[in-house]
Specification:
The complex is a heterodimer of chains A (233) and B (322). Chain A is an all-alpha fold and 233 residues long. Chain A folds into two domains: 2-52, no CATH class; 60-229, no CATH class. Helix content of chain A is 74%, strand content 0%. In chain A, helix 6 runs parallel beside helix 8 (140-162). Chain A is globular and about 70 Å long. In chain B, helix 9 packs parallel to helix 11 and helix 10 crosses helix 12. Helices cover 71% and strands 1% of the residues of chain B. The model of chain B has no long low-confidence stretch (mean pLDDT 91). In chain B, strand 1 and strand 2 form a beta hairpin. Chain B folds into three domains: 4-76, no CATH class; 82-171, no CATH class; 189-318, no CATH class. Classes of the chains: A mainly alpha (233), B mainly alpha (322).
């Protein structure tokens, strides 16, 4: 029971809005100590796991490429491309990206999207430009909402597409877990049963994204009314 | 043979360059902190395998001390103005997209083709991590293409990279640190305690309550751990396997597949899933990026909750029928 103190530290730290790095370090030390490790053992275990997981941070290697392209107008070009296409709305663009992300992830290509590579340089500026083409007075609040949805479409498309691919880590984890417990399942059998949720996910989130256009129009109309009122008695 | 260590060295050299450029950035009042943070991260990537476990742990504590107490600053590397960027965009047009496409195409070809290339008995890529190695190769090719296309000043790629790196800030190591925390939790047996607690408290009187407890448990424990992979063995061993599958006869493939996807609903709701929910808030300059529930999580929450409900319905309808 005492080892759950580490979780309490984690939750309390987030609620008090302390720096997450400090909170995680504190939680790891509390968990290690209450779990029967000494302080040096806890620090060593935490350090070993940090070192073993360096591959997670390899993604930052793309930043020099993305930064250089931004220097020469990548975001502006993404905006120009979308601003010229009148039939593309923010909602339709993001719903299309959601579908493309789900399908490519289902084919095992999970690296085709991602926040540093796709969302920041391309998807978010395109989604903003599609809204600006119709509502030149886009309020900041709406702009941040659109950016948040660009990130959300990437996450949801990835999560509810990748499990349809038979060789993805989560499917292999399930297979291994069941095998240890004496149940043999084929990866294909697991991935087939990820399809119903994937379809529901697209239906729910796709609908929400298409409805986003109406919210953008409503928030921009309020902004227009406010700016028209300015300077009048 | 090209192994993951080559990619670590590349990343280490990149972080080292961020550190050196930060040190000379007089515009950043916290430039020594930034230089120390990226410098230590460079040490981790270049020499981590020789530091020993305790050494890596102390390095991590130093990283937390620099970033957590006092924080990092935002560097001001030389870059172009919005007007210049628009002019460049008009000049280069669609060619700007080519380098961005090189990275995923190389990752794809690398996994499918290069991973199978062998010289005699030695494979070109370490067969353990072909995708990550291909990602590194894709970055190098994309950068070479971009440099040939724009002819930028020599330091521009690293300075522009530092501009983005500083906008991510300390959150850059958050995903890696959370993964390490998961390992400590596993070592201390946190999962077993939580699983035992849930199955003690909830009476498993029928298949519906078992399905609901399993799916909600997966989502909630994922919210705490930030990762459905950590929640899955715990919740499935405590509830999914003994109750939904063995006692009530649910199909194991259906129960586990949908159980994992219920965990993914939790991933959409938690700041602990830093690489999905916190890092993009930093990259997109959201004003509420440091809030526990930032704009990204709020945008995802209605879908996550509706989908969790849908998963329970699907598992209940499908698992006992097939």
């Amino acid at each position: 029971m005492l080892v759950l103190l580490g979780i309490a530290v984690l939750v309390a730290g987030f609620l008090l809005r302390l720096n997450p790095l400090v909170v995680i370090l504190a939680s790891a030390i509390v968990t290690g100590l209450t779990g029967g490790l000494s302080l040096p053992e806890t620090i060593a275990a935490f350090g070993k796991a940090f070192n073993d997981n360096r591959y997670i941070s390899i993604v930052w290697l793309v930043l020099p490429v993305i930064g250089l392209l931004e220097r020469y107008g990548l975001q502006e070009q993404a905006r120009r491309l979308i601003g010229g296409l009148r039939t593309v709305t923010t909602g339709r663009l993001l719903a299309g990206y959601l579908l493309a992300r789900q399908i490519t992830a289902a084919l095992g290509q999970t690296k085709l999207g991602g926040h540093p590579q796709m969302v920041r340089p391309l998807i978010a500026p395109m989604a903003e430009a599609a809204a600006e083409a119709r509502h030149p007075n886009l309020p900041d609040k709406t702009r941040f909402l659109i950016r948040s949805h660009a990130a959300g479409a990437d996450n949801i498309g990835l999560f509810f597409g990748e499990d349809i691919f038979i060789a993805i880590a989560s499917i292999l984890l399930i297979k291994g877990f069941l095998e240890q417990n004496g149940i043999i399942v084929q990866p294909l059998h697991l991935s087939v049963w990820a399809i119903p949720t994937a379809i529901v996910a697209f239906a729910i989130h796709g609908t929400r994204l298409l409805r986003l256009d109406r919210r953008i129009a409503r928030e921009s109309a309020v902004q227009d009314a406010v700016s028209e009122g300015e300077g009048r008695p | 043979m090209i192994s993951l260590v080559w990619v670590y060295v590349l990343a280490g050299l990149t972080f080292a360059a961020f550190s050196v450029f930060s040190l000379t950035d007089a515009e950043n009042p916290k430039r020594f902190r930034n230089a120390g943070f990226w410098g230590l991260l460079a040490v981790s990537f270049l020499f981590g395998q020789w530091l020993g476990d305790l050494g890596n742990g102390l390095l991590l504590i130093a990283l937390v001390a620099i970033a957590g107490v006092g924080g990092l600053g935002q560097g001001k590397p030389p870059t172009t103005t919005p007007e210049e960027r628009l002019a460049h965009a008009k000049r280069f047009g669609a060619r700007l997209f080519i380098p961005t496409l090189i990275i995923p195409v190389t990752a794809l070809l690398g996994t499918l083709v290069l991973a199978k290339v062998k010289f005699g008995d030695t494979p070109l890529f370490d067969p353990k991590d072909p995708t990550l190695i291909a990602l590194g190769l894709g970055v190098v090719l994309a950068l070479a293409t971009a440099v040939a296309m724009f002819r930028p000043p020599a330091t521009a790629p690293l300075q522009e990279g530092r501009r983005l790196m500083d906008s991510v800030g300390w959150a850059a190591i958050l995903p890696q640190m959370l993964a390490a925390l998961g390992a400590v939790f596993a070592l201390a047996g946190v999962g077993q305690v939580v699983g035992g607690l849930v199955s003690d408290v909830v009476p498993m009187t029928g298949p519906l309550i078992a399905v609901v407890t399993y799916c909600v448990g997966m989502a909630l424990f994922t919210v705490i751990m930030g990762n459905a992979f950590a929640a899955f063995p715990v919740m499935t061993a405590a509830i999914g396997l003994p109750f939904v599958i063995h006692q009530f006869g649910g199909n194991p493939a259906i129960v586990c597949a949908i159980g994992m996807l219920s965990g993914f609903c939790g991933t959409l709701l938690t700041p602990m899933a830093a690489n999905f929910n916190v890092v993009p808030a930093n990259l997109l300059d959201l004003p509420d990026r440091n809030a526990a529930f930032n704009g990204v999580i709020r945008a995802q929450a209605p879908t996550a909750l509706a989908l969790l409900l849908a998963n329970m319905v699907l598992m209940y309808l499908l698992a006992f029928r097939f």
